[in-house]
Design goal:
This protein is mainly beta. The protein has two helices and 21 strands.
């Protein structure tokens, strides 16, 4: 059975050659000067059928394998970028795999299996507007988005964490939304079927005290919004930057590489939204009439039983 599966895989894939305008001499790997393989930094779908893979150094001599339906595809190398132009548009919702290997000018190679998706050209402007992380039986963990413009949600992805470092994710189906709509992703319990624009994000809940929640245009594309919450300080835990766990710390490191949270080269727990006062019914709410500053000052914890998922935010803040 395993041999049959291998034969089928070979039949349904094909090789695509790339022009390599920047190809140069390959320096002896054993010179000892560079033994680090090229590292993939970003994957970006820039139009309906073009995907760009960006590495941390110039790359050479790519070897690519595509699904058979893309047999007329082409590709080329532009310094640290591998540009793949597919023969027809990618699906927004269906994953397409691109297998390839590249190497640097010292012969260090990297082999990657990359899942890619089509681009949604009608994505609305969205923000994370409310969330709860200490769910109960009657009030499970939830994340609410607010649509600031009309558009379509197809492929928009919510991560518990960041793209490279996350616990789980949820991608939206192709659904039209209007400006002012509230979209809710509920975890741990399947929401009632009659709930409009409410989706089931899975049985796993969000981190109760510390975590990162991020929103992307697609399963891997441009990050749209991020929130960071914590009940720790730099002095509370010596390990992992004060965040207490390796998972959260790695997510924060990735967040630091974006402009989605205010920082001066390092993000500390003190800059996160303080989660001490939150409960199953005291959610984190965005100040809706305020400009987004990508900081904890955009957020507050509402009064007990003040959660309003799917509706306009409660303005009354909890006071201990």
């Amino acid at each position: 059975m395993k041999k049959l599966a291998l034969v089928i895989l070979i039949i349904t894939l094909l090789f695509v050659s790339c022009s390599d305008e920047f190809d140069g001499p390959v320096i002896n790997f054993f010179s000892g000067k560079d033994r680090m393989s090229p590292r993939l930094i970003t994957i970006q779908t820039i139009d309906e059928s073009t995907v760009v893979f960006t590495f941390d150094e110039f790359i050479f001599r790519p070897f690519i394998t595509l699904e058979k339906e893309y047999k007329e595809s082409t590709c080329y190398v532009d310094q640290e970028k591998l540009v793949v132009s597919l023969s027809h548009p990618l699906s927004v919702m269906r994953q397409t795999n691109i297998y390839f290997s590249v190497r640097d000018n010292r012969g260090n190679s990297t082999t990657i299996s990359a899942p890619v998706y089509g681009i949604n050209t009608k994505i609305p402007n969205l923000v994370i507007n409310e969330f709860s992380t200490r769910g109960s039986t009657n009030h499970p963990d939830r994340v609410e988005l607010k649509a600031l413009t009309d558009g379509n949600l197809g492929g928009v992805t919510l991560y518990h964490g960041m793209f490279f470092n996350h616990t789980f994710s949820f991608s939206f189906p192709s659904v039209e939304v209007k400006r002012g709509d509230y979209i809710v992703v509920q975890f741990q319990q399947i929401p009632p079927q009659h709930s409009p624009l409410t989706y089931y994000g899975g049985s796993e809940g969000l981190g109760g005290n510390n975590g990162v929640i991020s929103l992307y245009n697609s399963p891997y594309n441009e990050v749209k919004d991020v929130v960071l919450y914590s009940n720790r300080t730099s002095d509370s835990d010596e390990a992992y930057g004060g965040f207490g766990t390796k998972d959260v710390y790695e997510q924060v490191i990735e967040l630091t590489s974006t402009d989605q949270w205010v920082h001066n080269g390092v993000i500390r727990p003190e800059s996160a939204i303080n989660s001490d006062s939150s409960t199953a019914t005291r959610s984190f709410n965005r100040k809706e009439e305020q400009e987004d500053t990508n900081s904890a000052s955009d957020w507050y914890v509402v009064i007990t039983s003040g959660s309003t998922f799917g509706e306009k935010n409660t303005t009354t803040q909890y006071s201990p």
